[in-house]
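Note on ligand handling. Small-molecule inputs were canonicalized before submission; formal charges were left as drawn, and no protonation-state enumeration was performed. Where a ligand contained multiple stereocentres, the stereochemistry in the source SMILES was retained. For flavin-adenine dinucleotide, this procedure yielded the string shown in the input block below.
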Amino acid sequence: MTLEKRDYDVVVVGAGGGGMSAAITAHDAGASVLLVEVGDAVGGSTALSGGFVYAAGTSVQRAAGILHDSAEAMFAYYMTLNQWKVDPAVAWRYCTETAVTLEWLLELGVEFPVANLHAAGVDGVPRSHEAVGEGRALVAVLERSCRERHIDIALGQRVDGLIQDSDGAVVGVTSGADQVSAAGVIFATGGFGHNRDLLQQYYPDAADAGDWCWSVSGRHAMGDGLVIGRGIGASISGYNRGLLLPTTGMDRVFETPLPSWLMLVNAAGMRFVDENAPHPVITGVIRAQRGPVHAIFDEEARQHGGPHPENVRCERSSNFTPDAIIAGVTSGVVRRATTLAALGAELRLEPGALGAAANRQNHHVARRRDSEFFKAPQCLREVSAPPFYAVEVKPAIISFTGCGLKIDPDARVLDLTGTPIRGLFAGGEVTGSVHGKRYLGGGNGLGNCLNFGRIAGATAAEYARLVGV
Ligand SMILES: Cc1cc2nc3c(=O)[nH]c(=O)nc-3n(C[C@H](O)[C@H](O)[C@H](O)COP(=O)(O)OP(=O)(O)OC[C@H]3O[C@@H](n4cnc5c(N)ncnc54)[C@H](O)[C@@H]3O)c2cc1C
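Structure output:
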């Protein structure tokens, strides 16, 4: 398929959640829209996602009896969790938009039943709205909405450049030999989880994990929007931000969370965390150990460490089946020893430290109280039945990247002086302005793309109206 040689008010690049939200919103504001997608289908990472959307002050919350949640409360939580190391104006816009976007999605036909409302991460208030049918269903609704509006969609077209006029305003895109002119361009090209060079430059925590590091993102998460925008002078923000999840490297399995019955020890052979801590925070705690971290368990756990009826988070990932663990021993990824002293020596831990950590843990199990880290007692397991096992754990699975084009609260891309680049807008994972140092919890990846996709669509349509085509 080749791009049509005709003008549009708005060209949206990337047809994931951000791009389709932008396209629908720009269309509904009166703009003619072309949506360009490199893949042979729409969806991107959004289609692969769990479909959790973060929002505060929604009708779903009210139906669940949560009557007093608000943008203000979400903002206070967002800024505190991120120690105010995120642009307050952008965060504020995000917080004030989430309920509007959720109602918009409900109107389009996405289902968010009350039963699918969860408290995400370390959040005390249930704000994570899980779409029925996960990301795939969300994408199906957005695609249907684009098609119903007769928005032009060009699949299989990789945008590789921007066209600027003599004043530097963005006035179109290029894709190979094809060009399309438009009043405004919205980048919604997603993240760069599959681009090793960009990981090295902008997400060193991920790149540091070397061969362990892999991304669950859609395969076109190559950072095209970031590179093209940077090439015309866009500012980049969100250095080293994103969501890295811990893994044992036993297999490339998206295992979130790790089985919470594991005992984690640092290079000193000491436990350092409630191993059951939510995924938005445990990565930072593991990295803060500044040395290898190992998961320790015994033969009893290898054989029977399955789900605990009292706590669904005590599940077993496919890496931790009895057979997979033995396969890990055979391949050398999992270490096994008949005594904790021998295992500790193999891991080069302080002599006696591992045995002492296990003794303390066994004591907590007997008392049904973890007086060190306050892990839920039903998730504690004894480490007492030989042989003993150890497997290294590293934050290395990239769920999303959080560095990208710097935007203002209206989703206008900023240059190095903080001035909007005329005609260029962005929303979603291609931007670097929304996520802070700590992931808020399930729903903020989609929250970012859906909210700032809509905002970019509205701003670009208004810009097109003002400048004409
Ligand atoms: C397995 C998985 C589970 C997740 N679960 C959740 C969850 O439950 N909740 C949550 O909040 N977050 C979740 N996330 C994160 C979240 O899904 C993403 O951050 C979000 O969907 C990104 O949306 P986007 O529109 O910015 O990018 P994408 O959805 O990735 O869309 C970008 C699109 O741009 C296209 N593109 C790229 N380059 C070009 C180019 N040069 N020209 C044309 N097109 C281009 C891509 O092909 C893609 O279709 C998950 C992520 C993954 C991978």
